[in-house]
Amino acid sequence: xxxxxxxxxxxxxxxxxxxxxxxxxxxxxxxxxxxxxxxxxxxxxxxxxxxxxxxxxxxxxxxxxxxxxxxxxxxxxxxxxxxxxxxxxxxxxxxxxxxxxxxxxxxxxxxxxxxxxxxxxxxxxxxxxxxxxxxxxxxxxxxxxxxxxxxxxxxxxxxxxxxxxxxxxxxxxxxxxxxxxxxxxxxxxxxxxxxxxxxxxxxxxxxxxxxxxxxxxxxxxxxxxxxxxxxxxxxxxxxxxxxxxxxxxxxxxxxxxxxxxxxxxxxxxxxxxxxxxxxxxxxxxxxxxxxxxxxxxxxxxxxxxxxxxxxxxxxxxxxxxxxxxxxxxxxxxxxxxxxxxxxxxxxxxxxxxxxxxxxxxxxxxxxxxxxxxxxxxxxxxxxxxxxxxxxxxxxxxxxxxxxxxxxxxxxxxxxxxxxxxxxxxxxxxxxxxxxxxxxxxxxxxxxxxxxxxxxxxxxxxxxxxxxxxxxxxxxxxxxxxxxxxxxxxxxxxxxxxxxxxxxxxxxxxxxxxxxxxxxxx
Length: 521
Hints:
Number of helices: 14
Oligomer: single chain
Distance between the termini: 58 Å
Helix content: 25-40%
Mean pLDDT: 89
Strand content: 25-35%
Number of strands: 24
Radius of gyration: 30 Å
Low-confidence stretches: none
Strand order of the largest sheet: 17-16-15-18-19-20-23-24
């Protein structure tokens, strides 16, 4: 159906609504989309809206909208943008008659909630004019262990992330953000913060716009403290914070310092009409960073040793880090070769680098909360009692040991030491068809029992040229599909407090369809 064919459908839906009148087709200046203008009267409120019909109607666009409603008569209400557009989130629906009625209903709900009842939504962002907003070079922060009071000021410290140019807040008034120790060891830059009662707005959700607005918002002590900070000619941002309504969760906003040529005039209060330049801020607290899905605390809070950083180990590390794990030690003697890249978490420029350092870089690029140690203990089979004792002591700090090395000497060492840590051996059996998980202190025996008959008849090895060990044939997709199910199983068992027994995840074909099965032993 062409866009022109939706005119009558939308017009009819508007005209049939008893609270809508004066429906007029119009052309909006600067818009290629057809529009209607109408009046919506609900209780004592009467508002004039324009509605655009984008070419993608009735399907939602990337902003989760289809029809776009605008109202220029009112400003600053929650979920109302600078140009008057009302941000609604309708359900996707390809039936235009049903879709337009649903969106009109959502618009009326918005008017009733925020205009008539004057309810607030603390989750709705404040409205900052787009020409006074810097999206690049923003600030990233986390919640800190400190109780703030309105009227307080202080100093914060940050550092500039060299790759993203984002300013990462390290501490606020001495209370550390919860980044990994590596970030706190960097050279920090000082900045100034102010804490206020409520959002930095002058009307509803409309943000303060000038230095005069900022002065009006602050008490005299805060204002004088800010001017004193500006006299130091520091170029760090100014943080303004407040508690989200009804919570102890702090929202911080960033304001760029005034340009040096007008800084003195602002300090002397001669140029307070100059606009504030806001900087984008983002709360990257652990609870939000991994809020869409993290692994159980039994994994994320554990001290984990990962032995073997090849195809299985590198993908396991990726899953653990993306799942919120914080404390990881890596053990592997090898370097990255060309053949590792197609199925491991490595890149072309890491050829020749150690696998452990390469994976440390990868992990730290994913999570600012992870502590990666690349000097995990080597698990060569101990030749004498002294070596055995040293190796045993080196394993005492760990809660979980993942052995992904496929090295018999490593498995024998772990069996002999029988550490307090939970040992989980992960290996492929039968090429791409199965992944075996063996836990406990009899890994060598149990693994042989599980794989003996199954593996011998199915193992397909790839022998690269030169003096190199043969390795199993399996693609990145083969490994990740099996490993993902295995980690989901392990996570479930730990989360429920269940015992973790030996298991096998394997693909089987039935009636031409591949399906994965989990078997426990």
